[in-house]
Every structure is written in structure tokens, then in C-alpha cells.
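call fold(seq) -> C-alpha cells
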Amino acid sequence: MRIDLLDPAPFGRNDFWSTFTWLRANAPVHWHPEPGGDGFWVLSKHRDIVSVYADSDTFSSARGMRLDTDPAAVAAVAQRMLIVSDAPHHARLKRALYQAFGPQQMPRLEALVRTVVGELVAEAAEHDEMDFIDLAKQLPNRVVCAMMGIPRADWAWIGALTTDAFDSPDETVRSNAHSEIFLYFMELLDERRARPGDDLVSQIAHDTLVDEGDGTERPLSDEEIIFNCNGVLSGANETTRYSAAGAVHMFARLPEQWELLRGLGPAGVAPAVEEILRWTTPGVHAMRTALRDTEINGTRVAAGDRVTLWNVSANRDEDVFTDPHDFRVDRRPNRHVAFGHGRHLCLGARLARFELGALLTEMLATLDGFELTGPALFNSSNFTWGIKSLPVRLLRSRVSAHRERAAL
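ret:
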């Protein structure tokens, strides 16, 4: 079988799944050549991917965490940006940044999410038909921009810039978008240094300390704040957007799953969120670099080799998931790796789960379901992937319609 995971076309057509089915069965640790490059290893089995994620002593993130990265750009942020850091820097940064996402912050963030979700679903309910991605992309963007205290007039621009920075097929566009985001956060940070508020940037700038491991603590540097605000912005926007759109796509194709979820009531929301995350897996792959000679599933891997972890394949692994190609909102257990695994488990995973759960809860209360009015279109990316257009008709809840009439 011809394997070319560098070709974006199958991702745009949503027909890459058979490639990973073949790899899991025939070549779970596969050497992938690279035109003009050194090549890389492809891991497709859940057990191997989880094992590499967990072994941060052998496999480094600091040399880049995706294919097609600019080594100079990675070097500029390595050990200062969470996703391209190794121990001990990674652990110290994560402990510091976790203060902004920990349990003590969740009541405030949950209230913010509920407000945003209520506004968005109310706005959407005014239309019989819409491109659902217009709602899906606004949910995480509004939440994270509000968290950071970004002026509302800039929200749409920031959201578009984030998409360009991480999803554009053009390297120049990606680079320019990152530069604009960094410049924006530099200005925002200067303002928060002078006039702190109750937002995330102010908290990180004034109240967050990094444990240096020798009994001393220090504030985060400007570079650490700016780089990691960029990481929070991108992670929050992309995962929730693609997962929300992917969920509605499946509920429109499988209305019986929507009815099953309605019948399960509030207790059914949490497992449904996990199945949505497994099914959509917006973070297609992650990359690590071997720091020393090692073995993966009996295959020799040399120091310096790049190893790619294909989360989309792990989340369809027949050895882990019963009927992995079926979308089932009541699936249990569900040991997906949509947020990675181990030390590099996504910092915003709790927030993303709550956003999806709040959206499901609000839609269940106001909508009977969804009908597709056109084909779902997918973006052509082997890194961050999902639906970029989803024309749907919203089926209004009879209960909601009755309440509206009673209020007239």
C-alpha cells in the first residue's frame, strides 16, 4: 500500500482512515520517507503512542512537535513555550500556568462559558439554516478572548489570525500570522503590566511564579507569557471548533444518536463529549525526537530520529475500542488520546470539555436535531484537522417554540 502522510489531499477528502487501518495491522512502526528530508517514523497503535507520550526522558518535544516546522522558529521558543519544552522546564512552566486553569479558577470560567454558549445558541436559533462552523469557531474564540481580556472589537480578527497561524497550507502565511499574534500579545502584556485587571494575562503577569527547583521562585518572563498565550489561544480555538462541528455533523447523519443522548439526560453529556473528542481528534499528529537509541514495539529507533504519533489512528485502534468506526455517544470506556497523554496532556483539556458539554446541554434544550443542507468540507491538514464548512438546518424544539409563543 502506498503511504504518503505528507499529502494533504486525503485529509481534505476525509478518506485517510483506511491508510491507518492498514498501518495498524501491517506496519505499526513504519518508516516514512520524506522528499528532500530525512524521513520519520509513523506510530499508529494506541499502546505505542501512549508509551512514547509517557517517556519524555527518551523522546523530546523541544526540537519541534509537528511535521513541517521551521527549526529556527522552534529553537526561538524552545524551553519557553510549553508545547516545545522538556523536563525540567516543562514541569515548572506547566505548574505555573496551571494556576490559571486549575480547579480554583473553574467556577469563573464555567460561568463565562455558560454565558457565551447561551448567547451563541440564542443567536443561532434565530436562523433556520446556517453554516454551523460559524457558531463552532466563535465559542472557543469568545471564551478565550474574554479570559484574556482582549477587547471585543478584536475577537474576530484574533480568531482568523489563529486559524492562519496553525492551519494555513502556506508557510509564509503561518509565519506572518504568528508574528502578528506575538506583536499583539507584546502590546497587551505591556498594558497589563501597567494596568492589571482580573483577566488571564494580568494573572500570569503579576501573580504567577515559576519554581526554579532550587527553593527560589521567579515571575514568568515576557517571552514565556507571550509564547504561552499564543499556545493557549491556538489550543482553545482549534480543538473545540472542530469537535463541535464534527459532533453536529454526526448528529445530522445519525439522528438516532441525538435521540439517544436526549434520552440519557444530563448524565449522558460527559460520555458524549468523550466520544466526540475521540471521533473528531482535531490534533491529528504530534512529533517527538529520540534523544538516544531505543526500541519501539521491537523496532530500532536511532538517536535524532523524528517519531510521529498519529492520534487519529490511536483513537480508532481496534485493540482498544470496540467497533472503533462507529460513533456512539454512550461509549464506555473511552481511553482516547485527543488531548495527548502524560506530561504533555493539553493544559486546556478541562476547559474544552466543559465548552463542549455546555454546548450540548444548551442545544439539547432548544433543538430537536439537525439536517445537512450541503456537504461537509474538511481542511487539508495533517496536523490540526476538522470540518471547515457544515451547512445545516436547525430543527427547533417544540418545547422551545411553545415557550416563545407563550411569551408573546
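The mean pLDDT is 89.
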